[in-house]
What does this fold into?
Amino acid sequence: MLSTYVYPKFDYVMPPELRDRISTQYPVVVVGAGPIGLAAAIDLAQQGIPVVLLDEDNTVSAGSRGVCYAKRTLEILDRIGVGEACVDKGVSWNVGRTFFREEEVYNFNLLPQADHKRPGMINLQQYYLEEHLVARARELPELDLRFSNKVVSVSRDGGGVALQVDTPDGIYTVNTDWLVVADGARSSIRNMMGLDTDGKIVMDRFLIADVTMKADFPAERWFWFDPPFHPGQSVLLHHQADNVWRVDFQLGWDADPEEEKRPEKVIPRIKALLGDDREFDLERVNVYTYQCRRMNNFRHGRVLFVGDAAHQMSPYGARGSNSGIQDTDNLAWKLSLVIDGKAPEMLLDTYSEERIYAADENILNSTRSADFISPKSRVSLTFRNAVLALARDYPFARALVNSGRLSVPSFLESSRLNTADTATFMGEMIPGAPCDDAPMRANVENFWLLDKLGNNFQLLAYIENPADVQDAQALQSLMSGDIPLEVILISPRGGRSTDGLRVFEDYTGRFAERFDAHPGTTYLIRPDQHVAGRWRNVDVTRIRGALARATCNT
It folds into this structure.
């Protein structure tokens, strides 16, 4: 029980396989109604794919669990319909501060430049995110959300997957063309299939306490190394919704988890941080040991693994849920095209390739953070403390401070779906990069670029004067192919829609700045808002080739 949250109980409904004694072959079944499974099912259902989502429980996750959701994740949540609710409920922040003993030695700003829709991070208890996602799932007629449905066996053949599912009314069989596995770090389906993960345990333990209190601390991330109130260890403080504060105390590998969870051990630690005069209540306490692991392949025939079922990483930098939601963002459009017969199954191999690349990047950064936070030798500790001491005065040392490099999206620059540049560009919007946002205007409506991108391929053509578009007919021809493609003209001057092509006004110049756009510059954007290719002029032949390459239709 929590004082700030009442857990919902979701009704069990007898599935039609038991009620009507029918057998149906579903296009997709997703197992696991945590944030990752819900995001996957919603994304597919929004694209018109019928989905069954199975979960053995009948409520949301216990405790706050995942807390930090990064800007890129918020942009994905916007696309699937829950971003606004999450930002409204959560605590937005951009600034993090790092302390060594009693002095601040380093700070950072996740969003130093204006004109972005979303903050660098929000803090929000996972149960709220899940509740918003469940509400969104229930709005979608293509999504059949089944609680108290536990998968007890999995069998595969060349044409799909059969699941045995246990319910309060007995066991039934559900057949699916494609199975998306999102049942968490201890994935029962991964175990049923005899698959394993490779990695290592972080040899440290952390006490995580959620406390309720009224405090006027700023909405920032505070991290201490070797503070006087917890000498020799580290402490992290985050503000969540409902005046709940997350405090992480490093304990060391030899700490007794059960002993450390006792209130008489936890309360003095928190009082040492906050002072004896501040009133607070314990919401939830746990002790964790973290692991960094991943599967060797995220695709096994018609079974696709996402989130913690595919990879685990220590939470340094908030990489768990953020990475998992980006998995679903990568997978859903590819699976949709394959199901619709518009792309070959090999496109799904690129899901595994791209997200393994991202997982390795996250695990590397997480491991480096763990090594800095928990030095494994006296020499490493001496080096770490020297870096922290120097960071007060020297910029080079600040770059070495690592209290958990925060989650950022992967730049998939080595993906085989990219079309290489044939011209020179400045900036970060390389093939494989996630798109930057920018303010836009059309007629009297102001909006954000990313709110208009996603779900289909889009071609962004930067045109000085849309009324003078000489390539309008050629651009229109691109929209009549087998792969859905929308063409958007972006202009610093604005203008009316031209020959059926929508016109966005780059009224702040941020698009031109962030995409290094000059008249004629053209970008092909994937359905997950990553850049597939870019050119300095409208070249229909090259654009068609890039679209084919991005869908494995070459």
The domain at 439-550 is CATH 3.40.30.120 (Glutaredoxin). Residues 166 and 425 are 56 Å apart (CA to CA).
